Amino acid sequence: MTFFRNSAEMLSAFLGVIGRLTIFCLIAAMLYEVVARYAFGAPTLWAFDISYMLNGSIFLLGAAYSLREDAHVRIDFLSQKFPLRVQQVLNGVIYLLVMAPIFGAFTWVAGSKAYKAFASGEVEAVSPWAPLVWPFYAVIAIGLLAFALQFVVEAIKYLSGEKCPDGSDAEQQDLES
C-alpha cells in the first residue's frame, strides 16, 4: 500500500511541476502571438489552438497536485458539525466510493478518445492550423488518471486517521488539542 501511495503522490507532484512549466510555454506562445500580430502584422494560425490546449492541460495536470496539497475549495459547513473521526470517515468514503470511480470513468473515456484520435490521425477540424488532437487528449487522460489515483490516496489517509479534513495531519491535530 505504501508503494501505491508513494507512487501516486510522486505522480501528482511530477505532473504539478509539468503543469507549472507548461505555464511558461503558454506565456511564450501568447507573447509571440501578440508581437507577431501587432509588430509585424502577421498573426499566427496556431495561437488559439495552443492557448486552449495548454490551458486545459495546465488545469488537469495540476488537479491531482492541488488535491494532494488541499488547495481545492471545500464546502464543509455541514460536515464541520460532526466529530473529527466522523468527518474523516465521511471524506474517505466519499473520495473512495464516489469521487475516485467518477474520475476513473472520466479517465477511461478520455483514454479511449485519445486512442481513437491517435489511431485515426484526428485533427482539430475547425482550426486553420489543424493540429493533431491526440496529444491534448492524452494529457487530459493522464491528468484525470492522476486525479483519480490521488482521490484513492486521500481516502486512505482519511480512513486511516492520518489526515484531518482541515488539511492538517492527525498528529498535528493531537498536539494542538
Strand element count: 0
Mean pLDDT over the full residue set: 95
Number of domains: 1
* Unreliable stretches covering 5 or more consecutive residues: none
Shape: elongated
Beta content: under 5%
Structural class: mainly alpha
Termini separation comes to 30 Å
Count of helical regions: 5
Quaternary form: single chain
Strand count, sense and barrel status of the largest sheet are: none
Written as H for each helix and E for each strand, in order along the chain, the element string is HHHHH
User: Helicity, in percent?
Assistant: over 70%
Radius of gyration equals: 20 Å
GO biological process, one term: C4-dicarboxylate transport
Keywords: Cell inner membrane, Cell membrane, Membrane, Transmembrane, Transmembrane helix, Transport
InterPro entries: DctQ (IPR055348), TRAP_DctQ (IPR007387)
Function: Part of the tripartite ATP-independent periplasmic (TRAP) transport system.
